[in-house]
Amino acid sequence: MEPIRVLIVDDHALFAEALAARLGREPDLVILPIAADVRRALALVATERPRVLVLDLTLGAESGFDVLEQVSETHPDVRVVVLTATSGLDALVQAVRGGAVGWLEKTEGADMVARVIRSAARKGGWIPPDVLGEVLRRLRTEEAAPDAGAQLLAELTPREREVLQCMVDGLGRAEIADRLGLSANTVRTHTQNLLAKLDLHSALEAITLAMRAGMRPSHR
């Protein structure tokens, strides 16, 4: 069987190094250099081609959700397992919506982490059984209630809706600024404001919500 290439993304150096050393003793796992921030994580995903990414959600001042969003968009074949001290169903549901296939708390032992990595690599995954039912209920409720998204979008200003439409169209910040005749900083402000109003944390979530509410890419 081909070894599983694993990238650990965690800014807690001692924890990450200890985990890497322990997982490195597993004969079927190849542990890649550790990434401590978003930029390094994305660079290593592109160059090292991991099969499984073990991701902490807190990366200093940065968010692991940014890694999850961009990896899901650019490398959908990479399987993401969240390993975090962050607790709460909201974060877990957000991670699953963003493309994570596994969720573990850092209190789990390395043997369990290795098992979930193997499961993820085989197209499986892992959600703690005691919360799986509630996670599925929330995901089903979201999919069955597009009107809720429409109500949230109604709270946006016309300019914020224009920015969101550009995001749905697949434009980056500079392209949005060019299309709308705004500065990049102004686009950033509008983006932050609309995410706050929608109670979301990433552009990917905003695009998903917008499309569930009926917004579609325009043809310009």
UniProtKB/TrEMBL annotation:
Start and end residues of each Response regulatory domain: 5-121
Keywords: DNA-binding, Phosphoprotein, Transcription, Transcription regulation
Signal peptide positions on this chain: none
Gene Ontology MF terms in the entry: DNA binding
Positions where 4-aspartylphosphate occurs in the chain: 56
InterPro entries from the UniProt entry: CheY-like_superfamily, NreC/VraR/RcsB-like_REC, Sig_transdc_resp-reg_C-effctor, Sig_transdc_resp-reg_receiver, Tscrpt_reg_LuxR_C
Keyword Acetylation: no
Record GO biological process: phosphorelay signal transduction system; regulation of DNA-templated transcription
Classification via Pfam families: GerE, Response_reg
SUPFAM superfamilies tied to this protein: C-terminal effector domain of the bipartite response regulators, CheY-like
Stretches assigned to the HTH luxR-type domain: 149-214
Protein name (Swiss-Prot/TrEMBL): Response regulator transcription factor
Organism: Actinomadura decatromicini
